Amino acid sequence: MSQLDLSFVDRTVEQLGRRADAVIPILQAIQQHYRYLPQEALERVCELTEITPASIAGVSTFYTQFRHRPVGQHMISVCHGTACHVKGAGLVQAAFERQLHIAPGGDTDPQGLFTIEKVACLGCCTLAPVVQIDGVTYGHLTPGMVGDVLDDFLHHQQDASPKHELSAKAPRGPVGEIRIGLGSCCVANGSAKVLQAIRETLSESDAPAVVKRVGCVGMCHQTPLLELIPADGPSRLFARVTADDAPSIVLRHFKPRGIVRRLGHSMARWLDRLATDEIGDPIARHAIEVGEGPVCAFLGPQKHLATEYCGQIDPTDLDQYLAHGGFEALRRCNTLSPEQIIAQVQAAGLRGRGGAGFPTGIKWAKVRSVPGEKKYIICNGDEGDPGAFMDRMLLESFPYRIIEGMAIAARAVGAEEGFFYIRAEYPLAVKRIAEALAVCEDRGLVGQRVMGTDVRLRLSIKEGAGAFVCGEETALLASIEGKRGMPRLRPPYPAESGLWGLPTSVNNVETYALLPWIFRHGSDAFAQLGTEKSKGTKVFALAGKIRRGGLIEVPMGVTIQQIVDQVGGGVAGGKSFKAVQVGGPSGGCVPAELAETHVDYEALAAVGAIMGSGGLVVLDESDCMVDIARYFLRFTQDQSCGKCTFCRIGTRRMLDILDRICTGEGKPCDIEDLEQLALTVKSASLCGLGGTAPNPVLSTLRYFRSEYEAHLEGRCPAGKCEKLIRYRITEKCIGCTLCAQQCPVDAIAMTPYCRHTIDLTKCTRCDMCRQACPTEAVVVE
Questions:
Q1: How far apart are the C-alpha atoms of 345 and 352, rounded to whole Å?
Q2: Digit-coded pLDDT (tens) for 503-534
Q3: Would you give the DSSP letter of residue 735?
Q4: Short-list 763, 740, 772, CA closest to 753
Q5: Contacts of the segment 266-270: beta carbons below 8 A, 24+ positions apart
Q6: Angle, helices 338-348/360-369, rounded to nearest 10 degrees
């Protein structure tokens, strides 16, 4: 074996520093370079820095991001977030493993080409089920699509030579604007290809328009989205646009100027097709009337505060943000005393949007009152909830708004330094915040003299390394300090003793995003929205079995029914609404009969759920509530830091019981034992993770106890639990052999024109036969 080149380690240490708190960034850089953590590289780090071998071993084995074994040439990340789980992520991963002939317990194919990893959430919930291969996202997958996905990826790898990016000439005279969303969901659904097609069209046609990338529009179910704004006419919105359709849509609204001297082959082809209408009318197929129909219903109940100007501003163009009132709130705050700023936040009734809903003004006042010159502010962007993507979209789409909110908070509490703590799984969010910070420093909005005042504010980014528990503020602070993300007992609270023992204010991304609106429009305007105790609006990631998923922002106090039916358009596929899971692993399942429950902190707590950071996953009749409880408990048990006995062992015992129930091996006493364990873990755990981990179990026991009892009888009413179901082919079978062709384990003999049968001893319940059957002859019993 050739000796490992360690020169990269030397350069990394020189760049990132030698202090103990640099351990996580150094490990992340080493893994990105070598694709895992070689032992020789880790030993070299210890030689060059203050980082001890014990620290490296502890940190690198605690965070799920780090790998200690070599991997294949390409990484397949299979998302197992809530939306992906309920739509069959487990079946998709099993299909990849079969296709690649990965041995049981292994993760890499025999050729060393692909390595599969299970990830908690990729934040593309509206595309569920989702996988990423080396950062390329594939959505809406089924087990039968796995072979095509691998072929597509390898094909594009062979054609991966960089293409010249065309930029359109500056048009003469009045020009229109073409807006295209380039958030993560948009890019995953093909908006980058659409953008390239538009740029080519404008470059070749000299059409009077400019193209502008914008952040999240919210309508993730309609991506890629184009908004065309002619210089002399009304704007038009086009949904689910493809790269093939984009040129004709653009040229219908922005005519080429005169006779173009040099027409490229692609441009000539499109003009010919427009003349003959060979491809039909793309306008009719893609145009959306914003003032009526589904779009109006989706937008109707919404109120955009944190997501103000969504779909209108280039995320990293500071001048566009300034033109829409950007940093006006900070300018006003510079004329107020810290006490006046805090008083206005308290008058607005703003509560933290990260989960528990603690009053923001009270937290700031406490940090402000603690003696000492050195204080910190933190932006908690470690959105680890599976099924949630609110923070990712806000960071990607509104980076300047978050920075402005942090600057207001820093002035209020007296901090001169702060950190963005962002999940490493959100590379676009990290990139855009970094770009925005660099621009703000250059323009004097942060740095040594904020907006020309004597105020100083230094902001930097720390990337999380894959630990859900780091959403808890004391665990997050430990991670920034270069330690394992272990929560600690409180008090003292971070407001008194936080980062490096100094007073620290930790707030959620959405909390910061609301502050500029509050100070531009006034505390009273914010307080008039919502309910008596829950003021303002709340951003939700609406996903799951819903027709119109996406990023939504609604006033506090709307009902779950309004969100599901009016905004989301009801349950997809003609099935019935069963429940909504609110608040992620710390939340609960609210049944359909309680859909009139208002969305506010107190009302959700009363029915056994919590607001959480804002994940809202809709479930239908095909979802097993026992499986949902097991899914969340498996996640929290895996993510437990292990520090306290009740969480470490209690959740393990609860999971053992749920595993027995879901596999038909449950005992008569299991339901009572499970409930008692859940109550004990909830009351005695050290931190919020353990204290809320039993919520999904307790809420499903409360509202769906009959499903638990059915499982003890050997039945899964929803037909979801593999060990309790079987597949059968009915008399509807026409003998087309499609089921036999799709079966990966030869459990169906190919008998053309005859009714097929399934060998249940071979059947793996992969569901591919049922999905392939054109007559719905395959049923689950």
A1: 11
A2: 999 999 999 999 999 999 999 999 999 999 99
A3: -
A4: 740
A5: 266/200, 266/204, 267/200, 267/201, 267/204, 267/205, 270/201
A6: 160
